Amino acid sequence: RLLFVCTGNTCRSPMAQAIAQRSVERRGWDGVEIRSAGVSALLGGEASEGARVAAEWGVLSLAGHVTTPLDTELVAWASLVLTMGSHHADTAEALGGHGKVWMLTAFSDGGEDTRGPGVPDPFGGDAQAYQECLRTLEGLVEGALGRVDAEFLTPKKEAAP
Prior knowledge:
This protein has helices spanning 12-27, 49-57, 72-77, 86-97, 104-109, 127-153; strands at 2-6, 34-38, 80-83, 101-103. By secondary structure, the protein is of the alpha/beta class.
């Protein structure tokens, strides 16, 4: 159970969720659930116009996205929480996520540090800002799913005696 977190749940986290869902389907993974939320999200909104346009450009759809505020229940639901910035990570940890919260950039890099650079927020930017964010997220999400596969889904081979 994978949870992506940003500020308003209108741009970065819904795009990351859509990218991850597409990738999980392509990989043929069964039983993987993916959600997104925002630390300052209002319940029931939709993805921003810029994110919807960028998603279509990237052959994704955010048409059915409904904004969701981050809360203790969602953090408890998630096996892994991937955030767009350090403030989001701090909030998720304060809501009970200690030990399963990483910044997306740090997790996709494969290191042990849970913090890294943030994913720039395109909110209020032009179409190019949203497209650049989508391209960045595509690389980061693919890297994160590769790590999930290697560390959690692929059986570990035992060392020869």
